[in-house]
Amino acid sequence: MYLLIFILVMITPLALLTIGLHWRNHPPKRQGTWLAYRTELSSKNDETWAFAHRHLSKLWIRVGLILMVLSAFLMVMWRENYLDFFLWIIGGQMLLLCITALLIESLLKATFES
Fold first, then answer.
1. Does residue 85 fall inside a structural domain?
2. I need a surface site. Which of 15, 50, 62, 98 has the fewest CB within 10 A?
3. CB 27 within 8 A of CB 53
């Protein structure tokens, strides 16, 4: 059971890292792609679209690596109580995921709405 929970905890960091690495070299097209960072501001024009995905890919690579190491460390440290603790780890990961979106939106506003 511990191994299954460990894998579940590692899904978000691995997804962030994988998507970040992919978008670094192959950012999504504006139309027709199912996975993209779509907000009103990022969808304004081609420049904001490329800017958002370029910066989000860099951020997700860093955050994914940090979360991967931190999550694995915490799961190993609290192995005896992992059932009480793993939802807190996943909740923290989701919070950081939301914060990355807020950071990119702030960066878009600072760059394109001045």
1. yes
2. 98
3. yes
